[in-house]
Amino acid sequence: MFDLSKIIGFFGAPSQIGLLLSAFGLALCFTRFRERGLRFASAGSGMLAVMAFTPLGHFLTVPLETRFPSPPENLAPVDGVIVLGGSVDLTLGGQLDRVVLTDSAERLTAPLGLLLRFPKARLVFTGGAAVELRGRTFTEAGMTKRFWREIGFDQDNILYEDRASNTYENAVFTRDLVKPKPGERWLLVTSATHMPRSIGTFRQAGFPVIPYPVNYRTNGRLWSLNMPSNKLRALQLVDQATHEWLGLAVYWLTAKIDTLFPAP
Hints:
10 helices; single chain; two-stranded antiparallel sheet; Rossmann fold; alpha/beta
Protein backbone atom coordinates (compact mmCIF):
# COMPACT_ATOMS: atom_id res chain seq x y z
CA MET A 1 0.00 0.00 0.00
CA PHE A 2 2.89 2.37 0.74
CA ASP A 3 4.45 1.82 -2.69
CA LEU A 4 1.04 2.04 -4.36
CA SER A 5 0.26 5.33 -2.63
CA LYS A 6 3.59 6.78 -3.78
CA ILE A 7 2.97 5.70 -7.39
CA ILE A 8 -0.56 7.13 -7.37
CA GLY A 9 0.72 10.29 -5.70
CA PHE A 10 3.36 10.73 -8.41
CA PHE A 11 1.22 10.09 -11.48
CA GLY A 12 -1.92 11.58 -9.93
CA ALA A 13 -0.34 14.98 -9.28
CA PRO A 14 -2.04 17.60 -11.48
CA SER A 15 1.26 18.84 -12.89
CA GLN A 16 2.23 15.29 -13.84
CA ILE A 17 -1.12 14.75 -15.56
CA GLY A 18 -0.65 17.98 -17.50
CA LEU A 19 2.86 17.01 -18.55
CA LEU A 20 1.83 13.48 -19.53
CA LEU A 21 -1.11 14.74 -21.58
CA SER A 22 1.12 17.26 -23.33
CA ALA A 23 3.83 14.71 -24.08
CA PHE A 24 1.33 12.07 -25.23
CA GLY A 25 -0.42 14.58 -27.47
CA LEU A 26 2.85 15.78 -28.93
CA ALA A 27 3.85 12.21 -29.74
CA LEU A 28 0.52 11.59 -31.45
CA CYS A 29 1.06 14.66 -33.61
CA PHE A 30 3.73 12.70 -35.51
CA THR A 31 1.29 9.91 -36.34
CA ARG A 32 -1.93 9.68 -38.31
CA PHE A 33 -3.75 10.73 -35.13
CA ARG A 34 -2.47 14.29 -35.38
CA GLU A 35 -5.81 15.96 -34.66
CA ARG A 36 -6.35 13.85 -31.55
CA GLY A 37 -2.82 14.57 -30.49
CA LEU A 38 -3.44 18.30 -30.75
CA ARG A 39 -6.43 17.93 -28.44
CA PHE A 40 -4.39 16.06 -25.85
CA ALA A 41 -1.51 18.51 -26.08
CA SER A 42 -3.87 21.48 -25.78
CA ALA A 43 -5.58 19.97 -22.77
CA GLY A 44 -2.27 19.26 -21.05
CA SER A 45 -0.72 22.64 -21.77
CA GLY A 46 -3.96 24.33 -20.74
CA MET A 47 -3.87 22.54 -17.39
CA LEU A 48 -0.28 23.60 -16.81
CA ALA A 49 -1.05 27.20 -17.76
CA VAL A 50 -3.99 27.39 -15.35
CA MET A 51 -1.91 26.00 -12.49
CA ALA A 52 1.10 28.22 -13.22
CA PHE A 53 -0.58 31.53 -14.07
CA THR A 54 -3.70 31.58 -11.88
CA PRO A 55 -4.18 31.57 -8.08
CA LEU A 56 -5.51 28.00 -8.16
CA GLY A 57 -2.84 26.72 -5.77
CA HIS A 58 -3.54 29.60 -3.38
CA PHE A 59 -7.29 28.84 -3.35
CA LEU A 60 -6.67 25.14 -2.71
CA THR A 61 -4.11 25.73 0.03
CA VAL A 62 -5.63 28.49 2.18
CA PRO A 63 -8.53 26.41 3.59
CA LEU A 64 -6.06 23.71 4.64
CA GLU A 65 -3.59 26.10 6.25
CA THR A 66 -6.20 28.13 8.14
CA ARG A 67 -8.23 25.19 9.47
CA PHE A 68 -6.14 24.94 12.64
CA PRO A 69 -4.61 28.25 13.79
CA SER A 70 -1.37 28.45 15.70
CA PRO A 71 -1.70 28.27 19.51
CA PRO A 72 -1.42 31.55 21.46
CA GLU A 73 1.92 32.84 22.65
CA ASN A 74 0.82 32.37 26.27
CA LEU A 75 0.15 28.68 25.73
CA ALA A 76 0.08 26.75 28.99
CA PRO A 77 2.94 24.27 29.57
CA VAL A 78 2.75 21.03 27.63
CA ASP A 79 3.88 17.52 28.47
CA GLY A 80 5.34 16.72 25.09
CA VAL A 81 5.98 17.72 21.48
CA ILE A 82 5.44 15.37 18.54
CA VAL A 83 7.21 16.10 15.25
CA LEU A 84 6.09 14.39 12.04
CA GLY A 85 8.64 13.37 9.42
CA GLY A 86 8.93 14.72 5.90
CA SER A 87 11.76 17.20 6.37
CA VAL A 88 14.77 15.34 4.98
CA ASP A 89 15.70 14.17 1.49
CA LEU A 90 16.73 10.60 2.21
CA THR A 91 17.93 9.70 -1.27
CA LEU A 92 20.17 12.71 -1.78
CA GLY A 93 21.24 12.67 1.86
CA GLY A 94 22.20 9.02 1.59
CA GLN A 95 24.14 9.61 -1.60
CA LEU A 96 26.07 12.49 -0.04
CA ASP A 97 26.18 10.95 3.43
CA ARG A 98 24.96 14.18 4.98
CA VAL A 99 21.68 15.65 6.16
CA VAL A 100 19.77 17.30 3.31
CA LEU A 101 16.67 19.22 4.37
CA THR A 102 13.56 19.72 2.22
CA ASP A 103 11.34 22.81 2.07
CA SER A 104 9.55 21.43 5.15
CA ALA A 105 12.63 22.04 7.31
CA GLU A 106 10.66 24.15 9.79
CA ARG A 107 9.29 20.91 11.22
CA LEU A 108 12.80 20.32 12.59
CA THR A 109 13.65 23.88 13.62
CA ALA A 110 10.38 24.81 15.37
CA PRO A 111 10.91 22.22 18.16
CA LEU A 112 14.11 24.01 19.18
CA GLY A 113 12.12 27.05 20.27
CA LEU A 114 9.37 24.94 21.80
CA LEU A 115 11.80 23.08 24.03
CA LEU A 116 13.21 26.40 25.23
CA ARG A 117 9.69 27.47 26.19
CA PHE A 118 8.80 24.09 27.69
CA PRO A 119 12.06 22.56 28.93
CA LYS A 120 10.29 19.76 30.81
CA ALA A 121 8.39 18.55 27.75
CA ARG A 122 9.29 15.27 26.09
CA LEU A 123 10.14 15.40 22.39
CA VAL A 124 9.11 12.64 19.98
CA PHE A 125 10.05 12.41 16.31
CA THR A 126 8.06 9.97 14.18
CA GLY A 127 9.13 9.03 10.68
CA GLY A 128 10.17 5.63 9.36
CA ALA A 129 10.64 6.17 5.63
CA ALA A 130 13.89 4.51 4.57
CA VAL A 131 16.19 4.07 1.57
CA GLU A 132 18.90 1.48 0.95
CA LEU A 133 22.13 2.93 -0.47
CA ARG A 134 25.62 1.44 -0.62
CA GLY A 135 24.66 -1.32 1.78
CA ARG A 136 23.36 1.14 4.39
CA THR A 137 19.84 2.01 5.49
CA PHE A 138 18.99 5.68 5.87
CA THR A 139 15.81 6.55 7.77
CA GLU A 140 14.05 9.81 8.52
CA ALA A 141 14.48 9.21 12.23
CA GLY A 142 18.19 8.53 11.81
CA MET A 143 18.78 11.61 9.66
CA THR A 144 16.79 13.79 12.04
CA LYS A 145 18.75 12.50 15.01
CA ARG A 146 21.95 13.28 13.14
CA PHE A 147 20.77 16.82 12.28
CA TRP A 148 19.74 17.68 15.82
CA ARG A 149 23.00 16.27 17.19
CA GLU A 150 25.07 18.26 14.67
CA ILE A 151 23.49 21.54 15.76
CA GLY A 152 24.04 20.70 19.43
CA PHE A 153 20.47 19.81 20.36
CA ASP A 154 20.38 17.81 23.60
CA GLN A 155 19.32 14.20 22.88
CA ASP A 156 18.57 13.11 26.45
CA ASN A 157 14.83 13.77 26.27
CA ILE A 158 14.11 12.72 22.67
CA LEU A 159 12.31 9.57 21.52
CA TYR A 160 12.55 8.39 17.92
CA GLU A 161 9.81 6.32 16.27
CA ASP A 162 11.32 4.85 13.10
CA ARG A 163 8.65 2.51 11.70
CA ALA A 164 5.83 4.77 10.50
CA SER A 165 5.49 5.16 6.75
CA ASN A 166 2.34 7.33 6.68
CA THR A 167 0.28 9.66 8.86
CA TYR A 168 -1.92 6.86 10.21
CA GLU A 169 1.12 4.92 11.40
CA ASN A 170 2.62 8.13 12.83
CA ALA A 171 -0.43 8.42 15.08
CA VAL A 172 -0.72 4.77 16.09
CA PHE A 173 2.97 4.06 16.64
CA THR A 174 3.51 7.32 18.55
CA ARG A 175 0.52 6.60 20.78
CA ASP A 176 1.89 3.14 21.55
CA LEU A 177 5.36 4.57 22.19
CA VAL A 178 4.51 7.37 24.62
CA LYS A 179 1.30 5.91 26.12
CA PRO A 180 -0.20 9.35 26.88
CA LYS A 181 -2.00 9.65 30.19
CA PRO A 182 -5.43 11.29 30.55
CA GLY A 183 -5.08 15.02 30.88
CA GLU A 184 -1.63 15.24 29.28
CA ARG A 185 -1.08 18.00 26.75
CA TRP A 186 0.89 17.20 23.60
CA LEU A 187 1.77 19.55 20.74
CA LEU A 188 1.79 18.22 17.18
CA VAL A 189 4.27 19.88 14.79
CA THR A 190 3.69 19.42 11.09
CA SER A 191 3.11 21.49 7.96
CA ALA A 192 0.00 23.69 8.02
CA THR A 193 -1.42 22.01 4.91
CA HIS A 194 -0.98 18.60 6.53
CA MET A 195 -2.49 19.59 9.89
CA PRO A 196 -6.19 18.75 9.23
CA ARG A 197 -5.43 15.17 8.23
CA SER A 198 -2.88 14.78 11.01
CA ILE A 199 -5.19 16.04 13.76
CA GLY A 200 -8.04 13.89 12.50
CA THR A 201 -5.83 10.81 12.42
CA PHE A 202 -4.45 11.33 15.93
CA ARG A 203 -7.98 11.88 17.24
CA GLN A 204 -9.18 8.67 15.62
CA ALA A 205 -6.23 6.85 17.22
CA GLY A 206 -7.38 8.09 20.64
CA PHE A 207 -4.52 10.55 21.05
CA PRO A 208 -5.81 14.15 21.20
CA VAL A 209 -3.10 16.69 20.40
CA ILE A 210 -2.72 20.47 20.15
CA PRO A 211 -1.90 21.69 16.61
CA TYR A 212 1.32 23.64 16.06
CA PRO A 213 1.35 24.28 12.29
CA VAL A 214 4.53 25.30 10.46
CA ASN A 215 5.80 25.60 6.86
CA TYR A 216 3.11 28.00 5.68
CA ARG A 217 2.85 28.47 1.90
CA THR A 218 0.23 31.25 1.81
CA ASN A 219 -0.67 34.38 3.75
CA GLY A 220 -3.91 32.76 4.92
CA ARG A 221 -6.21 35.26 3.18
CA LEU A 222 -8.27 33.61 0.47
CA TRP A 223 -8.86 36.73 -1.61
CA SER A 224 -5.42 38.25 -1.11
CA LEU A 225 -3.74 36.79 -4.14
CA ASN A 226 -0.15 36.25 -3.16
CA MET A 227 0.96 34.47 -6.31
CA PRO A 228 4.35 32.73 -6.31
CA SER A 229 6.75 34.52 -8.62
CA ASN A 230 8.26 31.16 -9.54
CA LYS A 231 5.86 29.27 -11.82
CA LEU A 232 7.36 25.92 -10.88
CA ARG A 233 6.57 26.84 -7.27
CA ALA A 234 2.98 27.57 -8.32
CA LEU A 235 2.70 24.09 -9.85
CA GLN A 236 4.13 22.57 -6.68
CA LEU A 237 1.56 24.42 -4.57
CA VAL A 238 -1.28 22.89 -6.59
CA ASP A 239 0.27 19.42 -6.31
CA GLN A 240 0.77 19.68 -2.54
CA ALA A 241 -2.76 20.92 -1.89
CA THR A 242 -4.28 18.29 -4.18
CA HIS A 243 -2.31 15.60 -2.37
CA GLU A 244 -3.77 16.70 0.96
CA TRP A 245 -7.35 16.99 -0.29
CA LEU A 246 -7.12 13.50 -1.82
CA GLY A 247 -5.48 12.24 1.38
CA LEU A 248 -8.37 13.57 3.44
CA ALA A 249 -10.86 11.81 1.18
CA VAL A 250 -8.99 8.49 1.29
CA TYR A 251 -8.51 8.63 5.08
CA TRP A 252 -12.20 9.39 5.56
CA LEU A 253 -13.30 6.56 3.25
CA THR A 254 -10.99 4.12 5.05
CA ALA A 255 -12.12 5.28 8.53
CA LYS A 256 -8.73 6.68 9.52
CA ILE A 257 -10.47 9.98 10.27
CA ASP A 258 -14.09 10.35 11.37
CA THR A 259 -14.97 13.41 9.31
CA LEU A 260 -13.98 14.52 5.83
CA PHE A 261 -12.48 17.84 6.94
CA PRO A 262 -11.50 17.78 10.63
CA ALA A 263 -12.07 21.02 12.52
CA PRO A 264 -10.91 22.50 15.86
